[in-house]
Design brief:
Layout (H helix, E strand, L loop, with lengths): L2 H12 L8 E4 L9 H14 L8 H5 L4 H13 L5 H16 L10 H10 L3 E5 L7 H8 L9 E2 L12 H10 L6 E5 L2 H9 L3 E5 L6 H6 L4 E3 L2 H17 L5
Parallel strand pairs: 1-2, 1-4, 2-3, 4-5, 5-6
Bound molecules: magnesium ion (MG).
Magnesium ion binds next to loops.
Length: 249
């Protein structure tokens, strides 16, 4: 995929003149932390344990959805009825316990380097996650010192609808006071890509998990790379292409 062509298509689709970068919106799981193996594993263990048919891969497809939303879909498929509030809470609690019992996820290779490049370029890194761990901000500051500003973070505590709805990314833009054509999104999950694209933001997919590339492209990714390290390598070229590419009349 040629970068200039990807930008041109994005500008045409959204009716923007150009991208004037001010911020980069980062998803967390599978982007900043190599945590999706743990999440998918914890879901699989929990749901299988309840006697509900599932595969480990499908939890990569649900990534970004609220926990309650995922549980509801599984219950409807298995039992032909929605999950009750009590079931949603109980199952989500079990999933959280299974997740917490696993080894702490590592930072994603290349993530800190990219975050430093973004900062050095005078752009604001904005976190947009559906995750709601209380210790999140402390942990981010330990993993990525000097990068994030708690005023510009969107977490499970802010979000009502969750991805694939554009709400979380629109909220990220409004917290920093910018428009969709003043940022780009970094996402690893199909529903997250859908959310970024529906918010009208140029969305870069990094395929850090087991899903085929076309799942991310079909979800609406404007540009696709295989890792955060690759994105870090391409970052200067991306900045330049965004500065130079204007919508063709
Ligand atoms: Mg993710």
């Amino acid at each position: 995929m040629i970068l200039e062509t990807a930008i041109q298509k994005y500008l045409e689709r959204n009716g923007y003149e150009r991208i004037s970068l001010k911020a980069v919106l980062f998803d967390m799981d599978g982007v900043l932390y190599d945590s999706m193996k743990n999440h998918a594993g914890a879901w699989y263990k929990t749901i299988c344990g309840l006697g509900i048919d599932c595969t480990p891969e499908e939890f990569y497809m649900h990534e970004g959805r609220t926990g309650a939303g995922t549980i509801d879909i599984l219950f409807r498929r298995m039992y032909g009825r929605p999950a009750t509030e009590e079931e949603k809470q109980k199952v989500y609690q079990m999933k959280a316990e299974n997740f917490n019992a696993m080894a702490k996820p590592e930072c994603m290779p290349g993530a800190y380097r990219l975050l430093c490049q973004v900062k050095a370029a005078g752009l604001q890194p904005v976190l947009v996650t559906g995750s709601g761990q209380v210790s999140l901000i402390d942990r981010l500051n330990r993993s990525f010192p000097g990068i994030f500003d708690s005023r510009y973070m969107v977490t499970a505590f802010d979000v009502k609808l969750g991805k694939p709805h554009p709400e979380p990314y629109l909220m990220g833009l409004s917290k920093y006071g910018i428009r969709p054509d003043e940022a780009f999104v970094v996402e690893n999950a199909p529903l997250g890509v859908e959310a970024g694209s529906a918010a009208g933001i140029f969305t870069v997919a990094v395929n850090t998990g087991p899903l085929p590339d076309n799942v991310l492209l079909d979800a609406g990714a404007d540009y696709l790379l295989s890792s955060m390290t690759k994105l870090s390598e391409e970052f200067p070229a991306i900045m330049q292409a965004m500065q130079e590419t204007k919508r063709k009349k």
